[in-house]
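The pair is quoted verbatim as follows:
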Amino acid sequence: MSHATPLRPAARSADVQPAALTNAKYLARYLESRGVTHVYELIGGMITFLVDALHLHSGIRIVSMHHEQGAGFAAEGHARMTGVPAVALATSGPGATNLLTPIGSCYFDSVPAVFITGQVNRHEQKNDLPIRQLGFQETDIVSIARPITKAAFRVEDPESFPEILDRAFRLAGEGRPGPVLVDVPMDVQRHVLAATPDFATSTIKPRVHPDEAHSGFLGALSARLQAAQRPLVLAGGGVRSSSAIDAFRALIAHLRIPTVHSLMGVDTLPGGDPYRVGMIGSYGNRWANQALGRADLVLVLGSRLDIRQTGADIASFSRGRTFFHVDCDEGEMNNRVKGCTTLAATLADFLPAARSALPPGAADRPEWRSEIALLREQSPDTAETGAAGGINPNAFMHALSRSARDTRAFVCDVGQHQMWAAQSLELAPEQRFLTSGGLGAMGFALPAGIGAAFASGPVVVIAGDGGFQLNLQELQTIARNQLPVKIVVLNNGCHGMVRQFQESYFKERYQSTLWGYDAPDFCAVARAYGLPAVRASQPSEVDAGLETLMREPQRPALLEVMIPTGTNAYPKLAFGRPFGEMEPAAKPLEMEGT
């Protein structure tokens, strides 16, 4: 494997720092002033001025990826680990459109990021001409991206760039976080600013809600808690996106209340926490869905109550229980599940207020916790996959958790392996679980793992054989930077999630999931990129495979885990049946729509 090329000269020479402040140079200085340490990109003609300015006029590390989608996902992974806006760059045309998938992923999962695209010179743009394109690769990315961003800006006045850039960073992080796009023509990048802008940037301030709003909500919640026999908290991704994890954990321990979580809330409580129940929803832990089905009061914190959480039968999901719902986005409350008592507030603001207002042990019901423990004992996660034989994926996740205690995050792709990981990983208190939830983008994990590793250190990437092939090229980024990314590929020889769908609803016609699908030898591919690799095909080989994977904590490695093709992700909500009835014990009465 070739040695990595230095990202910049050892020292920046004064003779390459002209006095004139161009917008490109301003970008470099501004990003540094905001604490941006890494920028992810794939070089293209329309961003050469920006990349060159970052190289010459900042200490920011430029991470060159091998696909713009990889650059965008890497920025997303970085932002998820730090909670502050991350940056990805792409050139115009196909470069910009390749960013759309990670932009959408950030939008639906509330991740703060600023995506900067280059654009053709203003005099080369078609504007109102009745033609499709004037400049080469000219593409109206602003109009395309606007529905999946908090804001999308085209810089038309060169003097407005500093203000737009600062506004983009502020918007990305405030309120409900999300992506912002800034499209910058080449002549705007080269423009020399008339005056030096003030680098004292605006501060992101969360929306503060009146005390009386909290007081009324908490008064009603306190009264219902006193009467409840089976209280429960449902924690969603909003707990992390609001940077309120410590306050959340303090409240749960203060109330002594059992807590279930959504797919995006896997890491809200660590694996050993006495109040952690498990994941709910379409592929949730059986005992967690049963507990939610028996609860008489549910406090929903930062969760959307989407169809993958509630199932299609909303009446069954709601029947017999009272919901209190706190979210920073008013539109997400009383949307699908009606009749909730709601509070529009940031969790960073609400959680400390709740801990002060509610008495210690207000939700302490030992008999309720014992009931949940019995449900878990009766339906262990490792018994759900049935008699497929071979390596049990849920048991593997428990073993992986024990081997990876010193890593910073599990970064999971989309598919059956995602559900097995969410069901069975045992996270340490400081470990994170990152996945693409709302968009559900295959190919997320490998590049997101790169960003997460740059942000915080060793991570584990968990992918399926299908999704892993979508951004396989980023193995070179890992190899070039010798990143501590431990890659686990669960290989079942098919697109397993859809194959399972075809098994249920299409009479086992496996077109394009099994028939016409194949994958390479992933160990051989990893070695071609200079990464050590090993395969576990039988349960007896798992421990040795994990030992090899983790042997050198600061270096990359790959473990391929062979899973029998017919292994299904169970349990699974049986669509058309009351909430809590799950496959394979219960059969669906209607086809799921999502």
